[in-house]
Each structure stands twice: as C-alpha cells, then as structure tokens.
Amino acid sequence: MGKLRPEYRWLLPSALETPVPTRRSTRDWVIDTLCFLIGYGFCVLATYDLLSADFTFVPEWRLTPPWLAWLDFAVGTVIGIGLWWRRGRLLIPLAVFCALVSIFTVAAGPASMIVLFTVAVHRRFGVLAVFAVTALATNAIFPLLRPEDGRPYGQTMGWGSAFIIISCLWGMVIRSRRQLVLSLRDRAVRAESEQQLRVAQARTVERTRIAREMHDVLAHRISLLSLHAGALEIKPDATPDEVARAAGVIRASAHQALQDLREVIGVLRTDRSDGEPEPPQPTLGALPALAQESRSAGVKVNLDVRLEPASVPDGTGRTAYRIVQEGLTNARKHAPGTAVRVDVAGSPADGLAINVRNPWPIGGPSGAIPGTGTGLIGLTERTLLAGGRLSHGRTPQNEFVLTAWLPWPHESKSPEPAEAAV
C-alpha cells in the first residue's frame, strides 16, 4: 500500500490524540494567516473599543474597568498567537484555556470559536463533545457576568449557543469529507495493490497449468521413447528390419511429442472464455488409442471400459483420461514388463470409477526411467479440483493400485457445431 501523505496523517486512528507535526503547505499558511487576522484583529478592535470613551459596540461595556479590558487583551493575545500552532499538540491545551477564559472574555470570542472549530476538524467526536458542552456551559455563565442592557439573557445565550453549534457542525462536516477522501484514496491504492497481486497470482497459476499439462502430455511420449531405445540397447544383435522398425517408432514418438508440446503451449497461451474446452484435450473415447500406444511399446494392457465414452461429460472424461495416462506411464517407468489392467465403469448416479493396477515388480520399483515424483501429486490435485478423490499404493495382494472416483454431473452435452448450425 502507498504511503499516506503527511498532511493526512492526523486522520489515522492512532494519530487522533497525538498528531504528527507536519510542514505547512501554502494552503495552510493562507488559512492560518486568515484565522490569525480574524481572531487577533477582533481582539485589538474590541480592546480599543473597551478602552474608548467615545463609542462602543455595546454601550454597557463602556463601564468595563481598564484592568479587565487589558486582561481581556492579554487573553486574546495568547489565544491569537496560539492559533499558529492549533494544528499540533498544543490544540488541546489551547482549547482548555479557551474554555476557562470564555466565561468573561470578549476580545477572544472569535479566536475561541476558531479553536473549537479546529477541535471539531482534528479530533474525534468524543473529545469534541466535551469541549462543546463546556463551551455551552461557559456561554450560559457569560451573560450573567457581563450582561447587555436592553437584551434579555436568553437572547444573548441563544446567539452564543448558535455560534458554538454552527462551529462544531461545520468542523464535523469538513472532518467527514476529509476522511471520505482519504478512504477513497486508500481504496484506490489498495485496489491497485490487489490488481498487481492478482496479476502475479495469474502468472503463477498459468505457469502451474503449463507445467502440469506438459507433464501429462510429454511424460507418456517420452516413456515410450525410453522403452524403444532401451530395447535397442539390450538387443545389439537385432536385424536391420527390427532396428528400422524401432527407429521408426522412436521417430514417430518424438515427432508426436514435439507436436503435442506445440499444441499445449499454443493452447495455454491463447485467451479463452470461461468454460470453453482447450484442445487438445482427449476424453474417454481416446483410451483405446492410448492403450494401443503402450502395447506397441511392449506393455501388456488390458483395457475394460464398461460404459459409453460419449455419454461422459467432457470435463470428467478429460480428467479420467489423464488419470489412466499417468497410471500407464508410471507402470512403464517403475514396473516394466508387467501387465497393466485398466477398468473404467460408472453411471450418472454412481459417478465414474477408474482402477489401474499392475503387479508389484520383483525387487521393488525400477528407476530405469527417471521421474520427477510429482505426477501423482499433480494428479491428486487435478482430481480434487474436479470434485473427486484419488488414492494409490501397494495392496496386500502385492499389487500397485491407482483408484479414482469422479463425479458425473447431470448435464446435457452441448451440440456439435454442425448440429447447432442446423
């Protein structure tokens, strides 16, 4: 998140009671100068009026003793000078001083209103309420100590209370507006940060998709290449025809692996709408071809599909295909020469069940073909994301079994493009 500008730090909850001193901006200098001229200017004029014998704004104040007028001037001077530091830590002491002297002072009236207004802008409502109630109380006492002839007590107190309430409400409105601006700015900064985080997460997810898809597609092809190359290595006396056939199979497998790699990278780099299939994505209908590829590499595969592949939803079929593909790939890697049995069965009511098993190799799993060890981990994640479950391990019957269950969503298959056109 971006840093908060210094002039807005006082809006933070932790800074409400002890605001951090900041440098004044040009706007602050203009406002502070105007407040000083209003507050202290009225103090000078009022003191001159109190000491003048010719004319006064309030005739009853003509009888004000000189000592009281000079005391009033001194109080107004202190408050007027304090207006320059009302934004910092001196605000509360200055407000307390104004609350005490407001009982008798005339010259410091506008300056005291400015201080109360500043409290409303820079402090929370609880602090403002204390000073507002105090100001209303002193305003009720002031007409008793310095009454105005010809004006009833209620009128004098009413006007003073009105100015106090207006100052408080005005300050609260400005504080709320500034907090709203700060909140909107904070949301904008947060939204930008979250957008950057989403971009980083999207890149990570895309890289994971590419790695998983490349593993699923290429591991199968490369294992076939390794088996055919191993057959040539252990049979140096092979006839030229056998070598040519094996080389042809190796060349075809390598070509197919490169083709699959191009298609996977091309698909994962293409922007597609949500829910749109991503070719090449084989489904259960491609299981016979997958089994035949393994048989051509010398693996005995017994495939038993007890359902109609076309009736399985495409998403479920793609996940099932990857599970069977990974099971055959692991069997070729770690248990070469064994027979693999693949059973696929299910219904919309029971879900789709997949079972891939092969005898446990004598001497333990073979490491002739290296693997990353993450194939089954990625397959488990893929199955969980599809809403199913997957387990694997050695059984008491000395077999390695890979079992999976996938939900069979009750959804109608979308029509083919030609059917949709009709």
TrEMBL record:
Query: Pfam families under this entry?
Result: HisKA_3
**EC number in record:** 2.7.13.3
Q: Would the keyword Flavoprotein be found if you checked this record's keyword annotation?
A: no
Q: Which reaction does it catalyse?
A: ATP + protein L-histidine = ADP + protein N-phospho-L-histidine
Q: Which residues cross the membrane?
A: 29-47, 67-85, 92-119, 125-145, 157-174
Q: Which UniProt keywords apply?
A: ATP-binding, Kinase, Membrane, Nucleotide-binding, Phosphoprotein, Transferase, Transmembrane, Transmembrane helix, Two-component regulatory system
Q: Which organism is it from?
A: Paractinoplanes aksuensis
First-level EC class: transferase
Protein name as catalogued: histidine kinase
PANTHER family the UniProt entry points to: NITRATE/NITRITE SENSOR PROTEIN NARX-RELATED, NITRATE_NITRITE SENSOR PROTEIN NARQ
Keyword flag Transferase = yes
Q: Which Gene3D superfamilies match?
A: 1.20.5.1930, Histidine kinase-like ATPase, C-terminal domain
Tell me which residues make up the Signal transduction histidine kinase subgroup 3 dimerisation and phosphoacceptor domain. Answer: 206-271
Write out the GO MF terms.
kinase activity
Among InterPro entries, the record links this protein to: HATPase_C_sf (IPR036890), Sensor_HK_TwoCompSys (IPR050482), Sig_transdc_His_kin_sub3_dim/P (IPR011712)
